[in-house]
Each structure stands twice: as structure tokens, then as C-alpha cells.
Amino acid sequence: MKDFTYYNPTRIEFGMGKEKNIGKYIAEYGVSKVLIVYGSERIKKSGLFDTIAKSLSDNGINFEQLGGVQSNPLLSKVYEGIQLAKTKDLEAVLAVGGGSVLDSSKAIAAGAAYEGDVWDFFTYKAVPDRALKIFDIMTLAATGSEMNNYAVVTKDETKQKLSLAGAATYPTVSVINPELQTSVTKEYLVYSAADIFAHSLDMYLSATYLPEFIAGHVENILKTVMRTTEILLVDENNLEARGEFAWAATQALNFTTFCGVENNRFDTHFIEHTLSAEYNIAHGAGLSIIVPAWMKWQKNNLPERFEQFAKNIFNIEGADAGIEALKQWYSKIGTPVTLKEGNIPEEDIPALVEKLSAVASMWGAESLYTKEMITTVLENAK
Q1: Among residues 294, 270, 258, 273, which one has the least CA distance to residue 100?
Q2: Number of H helices, E strands in the chain
Q3: Is residue 263 left, alpha or beta, with left meaning phi > 0 and alpha meaning psi from -120 to 50?
Q4: 172 Cβ partners below 8 Å, 6+ apart?
Q5: Per-residue pLDDT reduced to its tens digit, 237-275
Q6: Which residues form the Fe-containing alcohol dehydrogenase-like C-terminal domain (predicted)?
Q7: β-strands 133-138, 92-97 pairing
Q8: Which CATH class is domain 11-180?
Q9: What is the domain partition of the chain in residue ranges?
């Protein structure tokens, strides 16, 4: 393994009913005023909001609330949360939902502790080294945001979907109760599976050096996601499968898969973020389109790794066969694998190439993400 430093300050509270203790967990960190951030009113109809409110009240914690966070979260909602946090002098943000809610909450937490425009963090003009404390209760497993410092948000006016990350944007405590995730629709279950696959394969199929231990770790995540997804499509209340799926999602992007690795990239996320910003397609659905298309482009760069993927995940021989097997599995579970299936017009490819090229320039990655590379991947997705 290559030398590495592993740092992850997030405390995980995994188990049934642990959301009832959220007030206690937050109070342990000296917090007395929080902003609850959530998506739809579903958490109120289900009684989860009342459970949280009682736990906070029982522990002497006052709260404000901000609902309406959407999938592919918007900067305008982040600004709304920052204003509320500053006006009410709040000390922490409590996200209740999935990755979109938590990503918005991280941006709110960072923006509330910053005098400038929070968008500075997304355009690399500043780094979020201060933030309100971040807590979360996950009702959907996919992004791994509960144990990493990433947040991805779309700027409404320009449709730029960019990310921030800093030492201050790790959650302090994340609650994962598999029972809270049983209401996830089958549609979003399969999109979540595709998201976890992309987090794993971006690294696994791009790293120029990959220790055998880490390769096995990633392969186990992939096989676990396949097995549990197929169980949950039949029995959404299988809590054993639900729990393993949730923990696999966390492991796929809590940076354990990066340890001892060299030169890994996030190619598929680089491309997909523009798709979901432009067409508001679910992030996981966009990734199930882009990942196989990118694999066709990338396979000749690491042929032995692609053969390993085919053999160890699908028990077949050959890089092309492995890519095709993945596409077939995506189709089997019901997530799109072509631009057409994702309702993305093929005639938009030239415009998308220009938008993605502009993002690559901002990143200083024009030599990696060339127009030729981007065009090839998008053409492969037809």
C-alpha cells in the first residue's frame, strides 16, 4: 500500500430507534439551538418530525425548521437556510433526509460561519474551514454524505452543479436506522444502488495503483449492493438487507476505499453532475447512464482491472463482457442506461461538451477532461 493519512471525525449511531436519541447526541456537544433541514412533508406525516422535536425539547434544545429541499438541491434554498441560521443565531444544523438534504445542510453550516458568498466554496475561491456543527438522520442511503465532507449543490441561474469540501463539513454525529429507509420507493432504491456503484467504480477503475485489500473491500461493497438491492425490490421491509445496503453506501464514500490508493479520479461524477443540473434527472439515474459509457472509454487504460471486475463481480471473462453485464443488471433493476432512456436529447451532446469543458477549465483539468474524451463518453451513452 502507498503511504496515506486517514481522518474521519464522524460518529455513527447505527440501529433501530436511535433517532429518538438525537437530542441527547446533540446536547453532548453543547448545542442548544439547531436548524432542522428536510425535504418533503413526508417526515411530518410519518411522525418522524414529532419524534425528533420531542427528543430535542427533552434535552433543552430549541429549533427552527427549513423544509422543501429537492433532489439535486439548489443554491437558493441554501441561501434561505444561511439567512435563517444567521438571523436566529443558530449553533448547528440537523439534516433529516437523504444526500440532497445533508448536502444542503453542509452548505448552510459552512455559509452561516462565513462572511462572504457560500458559492465561493464551490468555485474554489475559499475553503470551508469553519462551520456550524452538522448532525443528520438518514432516511435514504446512497451518497455516503453521512460520513464524508462533500456537498454538491446546483446554482439555480447558471445550472452549475459543483461541490465543496473542507475539514469543517464532516457531520459530527450521523444516525442510520434502517427502519427509517423502508419507505424509499423502488425507483429511488435502484438509483441509490447506481450511485453507490459509481462511488466505488470511479476509484476502482481509475486508480493506477490499487492494493489487493482495497480492491476486495470495493468488490464486497459492489456485491453487497447487488445482493441487497435484489432482496429489497421484492421485500422492502427486510431490515437485514436494508441495514447492509445502508452501511455499504456509507463505506463506498467514507474514504476507506481510498487508503493506500494512487491516482484515483471521479470521472463519472464530473460528467453526470452537468446532466442532472441541466435535465434534473436523478443523480443515480444519470450515473447508470454514464458509468458504462465511461467504462467503454476507460477500459484500455487499465485492461487487467476491468478483467478483474468482470471475473470477481459477474464471474465472466473479458472487459467488454463485464461492462455489458453491468448494463444488463442496471436494466434488470430498472435504472436507465442510455441518454434516450434518461430523456436526454442526443442532439444536446455538443452543448453538453462545451459546458463540461468549461467546468474542466475551472478545475484546471483540461488535459484530463478533453473535449474528445467527453464527446466519446457521451456518444457511448447513446
Answers
A1: 273
A2: 15, 8
A3: left
A4: 9, 10, 11, 29, 92, 133, 134, 135
A5: 999 999 999 999 999 999 999 999 999 999 999 999 999
A6: 190-380
A7: parallel
A8: alpha beta
A9: 11-180, 185-380
Predicted confidence band at 367 (pLDDT cuts at 50, 70, 90)? Answer: confident
265 vs 269: CA distance, rounded Å: 9
- Burial (0-12, 13-18, 19+ Cβ within 10 Å), 252: buried
Q: For cell 448552510, what's the residue?
A: 108
Residues pairing with 74 in the sheet: 154
Amino acid at site 221? I
Alpha helices of 93-238 — where are they, by DSSP H? Answer: 99-112, 119-122, 186-204, 212-234
pLDDT of 363 over the 90 cut? no
**Count of other CB atoms within 10 angstroms of residue 234:** 9
State which H helix or E strand residue 133 sits in. Answer: strand 133-138
- The single-letter code of the amino acid at 98 is G
Amino acid at 46: S
CATH superfamily name and code, 185-380: Dehydroquinate synthase-like - alpha domain (1.20.1090.10)
At 135, list the grid cell: 448532525
For the chain, the straight-line distance linking the first and the last C-alpha, in angstroms and rounded, comes to 38
Tell the burial category of 376 from Cβ atoms under 10 Å away from its Cβ (0-12, 13-18, 19+): middle
Measured between alpha carbons, how far is 106 from 173 in angstroms, rounded to an integer?
Answer: 13
Q: What share of the chain is helix, strand, coil (3-state, %, to 5)?
A: 55, 10, 35
One fold for 11-180 and 185-380: no
The span from the CA of 124 to the CA of 223, in Å, is 36
**Quick one: cell of 88?**
436566529
Of 70, 250, 263, 272, nearest in space to 162 by CA: 272
Grid cell, residue 200, equals 466505488
pLDDT digits (tens, 9 = 90+) for 4-52: 999 999 999 999 999 999 999 999 999 999 999 999 999 999 999 999 9
